[in-house]
Design brief:
- About 35% of the residues lie in helices and about 25% in strands.
- The chain is an alpha+beta fold.
- A hairpin with a 5-residue loop joins β4 (about 110-120) and β5.
- The longest helix is centred in the middle third of the chain and has 22 residues, at about 165-190.
- The two termini are about 25 Å apart.
């Protein structure tokens, strides 16, 4: 019998003995009166001279994460959501019968204790238990070593254990919650209304990506998990809401990487009577404020690199970035034939229908993107690759659009919205023609969205920000899987 199976057998034996003694293994009667942080705060008034018999009575519960037994007395540590504290259990204090049961408690068990605070000879704040109760019996041992690359897959797969034993992981997800709350606070304070739009949509629209497909039996129609809420949020602008946002789950049936998960969280917001220039200013203000609130500074360290989020942020057009950062000659960028040739020379495969706009964006990804460490706005994206963005009035070959890059990653995508229904229909049709035959997706114009635009949508700007990537930045997390509680993984072997 290997070591793990031996431990599992021993634990089940202890569980059987406790059950036979009439002790519930999974009861629901214990009610803590305090959290560990409250004991730690009150413990600041406890000195080495404080008697274990004095002071108020506290009742706490938590998971046993350390255990040292010494015959008639035991020191252990319990951990609840708020922190850890040492517990001292003495046979004389809790009674012989209770202590006999307590001796069958294991690391990982959830247990409850009532007692009073004192300090040990080494000065450690400790709860002197007057009673001990099993709350939930753990049948599996906590891992002794749960760190390192060898365990990374297990950490993602068994996140419940990861959270249990790694306080830095719990802190990452607390910060994630804080960041999302701050996003809401920032937008609500500026008059934005939080809304909800459909997650199952009859047309896969709002972005270019492969969707997940399902079927609704009662309606007898295929539906798609949304790849973006954009077209529904803009319908709300038509309906009269002038500032809306949604923190939403999007789904894209594409590859996995350190930056991509099939299910991810996006912030999308739309503002009537605004342009993409207004959203650049708002984005600078929002992200730098959130960073200061979460980290205490506008200069953060990400994977060993310092990133200065202090406004104003650098701004380039796509063509300027290809020259200033990518090293291309201005004459190459300005000439359609030369830019197409430059892309092919660098091994970029362009579809037959692609034009110079596609070549420029592919070259940008290859030559520029990963070099944009400090926040940088890239503007003037080609109309060819921006089917939902408004054409620039001075140069219709480009759109009033920006993407924000930080640490070499796209963090946000925004544009002044297209509200011309004729232009929109034509661009939908062109997008469908370029998509070509697709066995999984039947290309379709969103006629209802075009109809909505025919009623008249006010001039507006909209933006999407990747919440997961923002959390990665502000928690110094190298992979998107580190900031998603339950990331998608391949099945375990043997499943």
């Amino acid at each position: 019998m290997d070591e793990l199976n031996l431990i599992l057998t021993q634990r089940r034996q202890k569980a059987d003995e406790l059950a036979q003694a009439g002790i519930p293994l999974y009861g629901n009667t214990f009610r803590p009166t305090h959290r560990v942080t409250e004991l730690l705060a009150d413990g600041e008034r406890v000195t080495a001279e404080t008697s274990p018999e004095s002071g108020p009575l506290y009742t706490v519960a938590g998971r046993i994460v350390a255990l040292r037994k010494f015959g008639k007395a035991t020191f252990l540590q319990i951990q609840d959501e708020s922190g850890r504290i040492q517990i001292y259990v003495k046979k004389e204090a809790v009674g012989e019968e209770s202590y006999a049961a307590f001796k069958k408690f294991d690391m990982g068990d959830l247990a409850g204790f009532s007692g009073r605070l004192f300090r040990t000879k080494t000065g450690e704040l400790t709860l002197h238990a007057e009673s001990a109760q099993l709350v939930t019996k753990s049948l599996r041992p906590l891992p002794e070593k749960f760190h390192g690359l060898t365990d990374v897959e297990v950490r993602y797969r068994q996140r419940y254990v990861d959270l249990m034993v790694n306080p830095e992981v719990r802190e990452t997800f607390r910060k994630r919650v804080e960041i999302i709350q701050l996003v809401r606070e920032f937008l609500v304070n500026r008059g934005f209304l939080e809304v909800e739009t459909p997650m199952m949509q009859p047309i896969a629209g709002g972005a270019t990506a492969r969707p997940f497909k399902t079927h609704h039996n009662a309606l007898g129609i295929d539906l798609y998990l949304r790849i973006a809420p954009e077209l529904y949020l803009k319908r709300l602008l038509v309906g009269g809401f002038e500032r809306v946002f949604e923190i939403n789950r999007n789904f894209r049936n594409e590859g996995l990487s350190t930056r991509h998960n099939p299910e991810f969280t996006m912030l999308e917001f739309y503002q009537a009577y605004a342009s993409y220039h207004d959203l650049m200013d708002l984005t600078e203000e929002m992200i730098s404020w959130i960073a200061a609130e979460v980290t205490g500074s506008m200069v953060v360290t990400y994977q060993g690199q310092e990133v200065d989020l202090t406004p104003p942020w650098r701004r380039y057009t796509l063509e300027e970035a290809l020259v200033a950062v990518g090293g291309l000659a201005p004459g190459t960028v300005a000439d359609p034939a030369k830019i197409m040739a430059a892309a092919r020379e660098r091994g970029i495969e362009l579809p037959p229908q692609a034009g110079p706009g596609k070549a420029k964006t592919e070259l940008f990804e290859l030559l520029v993107e990963e070099k944009l460490i400090d926040p940088t706005f890239i503007t003037a994206y080609p109309t060819e690759v921006s089917p939902l963005a408004r054409r620039n009035e001075q140069n219709p070959e480009v759109t009033d659009r920006f993407e924000l890059f930080i640490t070499g990653r796209e963090m946000a995508n925004a544009f002044s919205e297209l509200n011309d229904p004729v232009d929109q229909r034509q661009r939908f049709e062109k997008q469908i023609a370029e998509r070509g035959d697709d066995e999984e997706i039947f290309p379709e114009v969103d006629k209802d969205f075009v109809r909505a635009l025919e009623y008249g949508m006010p001039p507006a700007a909209g933006q999407g920000i990747g919440i997961d990537r923002l959390v990665m930045l502000l928690t110094d997390s190298p992979s998107i899987r580190d900031v998603i509680l339950f990331p998608h993984l391949r099945p375990e072997r043997g499943e």
